[in-house]
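Help wanted!
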Amino acid sequence: MTRFIGKYVGQNQKRIDAYEKVTGRALYATDVAVQTRDAVHMHALVSPYAHAKITKLDLSKAEKAPGVVGIITGEEPGIDWESFPKDAIMAQNNEVIWAGQIVALVAAETLEQAKDAIELIDIEYEVLPHVLYYWDTIKPDPVSVVDPMWGKRDVVTDRPMDEIDERVSPNVVGAYKLDTGNVDEAMKTADIIIEKEFYTGKKTASQMETPLCTCIYEPNGKIILSSNGMGVHGVVKMGLSKMLGIKENMLRVVSPHNGGSFGSRLAPIMEVLCIMMARKIKRTVIYRLTREQQFTTAPSNWPGISKIKMGAKKDGTIVALDWYVAEECGAAINNSYFTGRMCASGANMCYDFGEARIDSCAVTTNTVPAAEYRGLGVPESEFAIECVISEIADQLGIDQLDMRLKNLLRKGDKNCVGEAITSTGLEDCLKSVYQSVKVDEPSIQDGSVWKRGKGIASAGKQNTPLGRSEATVLWNSDATVTLLLSNDENGMGATTALKQIAAEVLKMPIENIEVIRADTDATPYDNYGASSRTTYTTGNAVRIAAMDCIQKLRDEVGRAIGVHPINVEIEGTKAIVHGYQVPEIEIDTLFKPINFFEQGNFGLMKGTPVRGHGVYCPAPVLQWGADGRCARQWNWYQYSACAAEVEVNEETGEVRVIKFASAADTGNPINPKLVEGQIEGGVHMAIGFSIMEDHFYDKNGMIANRNLGDYRIPTIMEMPKNENVASIICPDALPDGPFGAKGMAESITVPVAPAIAEAVYNAVGIRVDSYPMTAEKVLKLIKEKKEAAN
Amino acid sequence: MAIVDKSYERVTVNLVVNGKDYTVDVAPFKTLQDVLREDLNLLGTKVGCEDGNCGVCTVLMDNLAVKSCCVLAPQAEGHKITTIEGLEKEDGLHPLQQSFIDYFALQCGYCTPGMILSAKALLMEKPDATEDDIREALHGNMCRCTGYKKIVEAIEAVRDGEYKDSCGEV
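Answered by r_m:
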C-alpha cells in the first residue's frame, strides 16, 4: 500500500477546536462546574500515612458544621466497593494503604465549608510499617502486606504459569512468563553477555487541568455527568451503570473540552465518587482534585524494575535474552495480569532476540495506585533493553545504528511471541534520526565543564484491540453533514483527523461537516481513547459510516428519480447518474420541501437526514499458551526512534538535552502537522521522565514533592531550541487502518530515555541504570568513575 | 485603596477588565483568578495549580503578565486587566490568536490563553524578541502537550509581521 494523500487525508487541516481554544471560549469541565447552578462542593479527607489503622473516626462535629450536606466514608452501606476502580476505593476496614487514600468525602454548600468541615473530623491513626519500593515489597516476609482486595485477591484472574503458591512474596499480584525454550543453550553461544539491573521513577501525568467531575442531579433522579474523564460510553456510563446499578437511560455522560489526560483519566474515579454523593444527597455535586491531590490520590504510572541478561555474537547478532521485569502497581490491583506482557511488548516487536525468556510480575506497594499513562509500562521496560543493546554495541565497537539494524524485525517476520509484524517503519525511523543528529560524528566540545555526547534508541508500543467504536453520519437535506462521534479528545487532535476521514470518503467539502462529540444520549458508542486506538478504531468506524451513508444515498437518489442505484454515484453534494437524461444532480434538490399543506412523508424529505452508521471492532487477541506465546497477542505496533545530543555538567551532574530528532511510524498520517505536534510533545514529556520526574516520600510515606514547584515537569527551558528539534514521519501503511493510518502518540516517549542515557555515556563515560537521570544521580556516578580511575 | 467593610469581611474592588469598569464585592482573600471566573464569568482564565507554578491563569495587569491565582482581588484595585476574552476584536482575531491556530500551536488548549497573554506581554515590551527572549518569557507557562516548538513558531510569525495586514498590531 503506497502512502495515501487525498484532498483532505494527508493534509494539514487546521484543528476544528482551535478557534474556541485561542479565544478562551472553549468550556472545559472546570468551567462547566463554575456555570453549574445550585451545586454543592465535595472535598476529600485523605490519609497522611502510607499504612495505618484508623483507631478513631468521629464525624459528629463535621456533620453539624455550617453548610455540610453529606459525608461518605468507606463504610457507606449498599456500595459494592469490589466493583469500583481500585484507585477509587475509600479506606476499608479502618485501614489506609497509601498516603492519599480517601478516608471521607464531605459535601457542603461551598468548597470552603467542605474544607472547614474536614478539619472538624476527629480521626486518629495507629501507624503501621509500609513498603514504598520494589526491593522492600518483594521480600518473602515483607514488613507490610499490601492487600487492596482485603483477602479476596483471588478475584484477580491468574493466567497460565502464575499459580498463587509459586509467588515469592505476598505482594506479588500478577505475572506473565514467556519462554521460547532454549535460552540457556543459546546464551552459551554468545561472544559477549551483559547482565544488568535497571529501574525507573514514579511519575504523575500532570495534565494542566486537574481531574474534575460535575454531576447534575435532575428532579427525576437522572444524572447528567460532565467530567474530564475518558470514555463517555465505555468507561463512564457502562462502568457507573454497573458499579452503582443506575439504569442506562438515567445516566447521561457528556465530555466538554478536556485539559489533557495522557491515559491518567481512564479510571472513572472522580465520576463514581461524585455520583455516589449526588445520589445520596439528591443534589448536584462538583468534585475537583486539587493539584496536590492529583499527586497523592489520582493514579500515577508504573515504575519498572528490569534485570537483563543479553547475549550477542561478535558481529552484534543478539542470540538470547533473559529478562526479569517487575512493575510496582502501588496500592491497587490494576491491569496487573497485563503487566509484564504489556511492558515487554515494547521490545518484542522491535528486535529478533533469537531465544527469549521473559519472567514478569506486578507487585503492590503502599504508594498511590498506578494506572494507565502514556506508553503503559513500555517506556519503563524498554529503557533497560535499549541501554543493554547500546552497551553491547559500544563494547563490540559496532555503530549504534548498525547494531540495531542487524537485529531489527522486518515486515512479515515473527517476533519471539510468535506474532507476525504487519507494518513497521522502524528502519526508516532509525536511519532518519541518525542522519538528522549526525550520531556518527562525535559532539563538538567547547572545553567547558559541559561535556557533550550523542545517543540513539528505538522503540515500539503495541495496540490492544479494546472493543468497538461506532460513528454516525447524518447527510442533511441541505447537503451538509453532521458527524456523530464519542471519541475522547484530550488535545491530540483525533477529532480533526476523524472529520478529515469523513470528508475524504464522502468527497464533501470539509467546511460542510459539523462534528457532535461525546454525549451518551446523542452520540453512538465508542469504548475509550486508549492504546493509541482512536485514529485507527474510530477512524475505521467513520470510514464505514461514510460508506454506508453513500450506499443509502445511492438507493434514495435512485428511488427518487426512478433508476437503479447501480447507476448512481455520489460525488460529494452531487449524484452522477449514468444513462439518465440529467447526468449530474445536486442531491439536496431531491429532498421534498415541507410546508403545512404538504402531503405524504416518504422518500427524501426536507429535515430528515440520510443516515449512515459504522461499527468497527478489531478481532480480539488470543489467549497464550503455557509458554506465553501466541499468534495474536496484540493488534498492531507503532514505532518510533529518537536520537539525542545532551550536555552534562561534570561538576554538578546536570543533564540538558540540546538537540533531538524523533521519528514516528504512524502508518499513513491523516494530518502530518498534528502528528508532528504529538512527536514534539511526546519527546518533551519524555525529557521530563528521563531527567526530572519522580515521587519522593517523607517519613510517613507521603509524597513530599506533591506540587508543580517540587515535582518539576519540563517547561520550555528543557526543550532544545527550535532549530535543534526535528520531528520526522516515516510511515509504513497499516493494511487495515483507515487510509493506512495507525495510532502513534505512545511510542514517541519510549526511546527518549535510553537515547539520553547513551548520550550521557558518550559525554562523560558513565552508564546510568535508572531514570530520572537527576543531577544527584549523575554526579554520584561521575565521582565514582573518577575515584575508580584514581 | 480598596474599601474594607469589616462587618461583612468583604471588600469592594474596582477594576478595569478588557476595557470595562467593574466593581465587585468579595472576600479579601479571594484571588483575581476567582473574581474573573466566578464573578465576571470570564472562564478563559484557567485553573491549574493555584500556587503560581503552571501559568494557565496568566492575565495581563497593566500590560504585564501576572499569574492571577497569586494576585489577591484587592491587589487588583484600580488596575487594568486583560484576559484572553479581551483580545478578539469585532473585525477578527488578535494576531497571536490567529498564528496559534495557523501554526498548530495548541493541543488540549488549556494552557493556551495564558501562553498567548505571556507572548503578548513580551511582544509589547520587545517587538523584536529573539527565540531566547520568547523562551524566557514563557518559562512560567507549563504545557504538557505540545513541546513548545510550534508555540515559538507562532510567536515568531507575529514578531516577523506575518499578521500585520490581516490582524493588525500586537
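OP: Thanks! One thing I noticed: Chain B has two domains: 3-86, 95-167.
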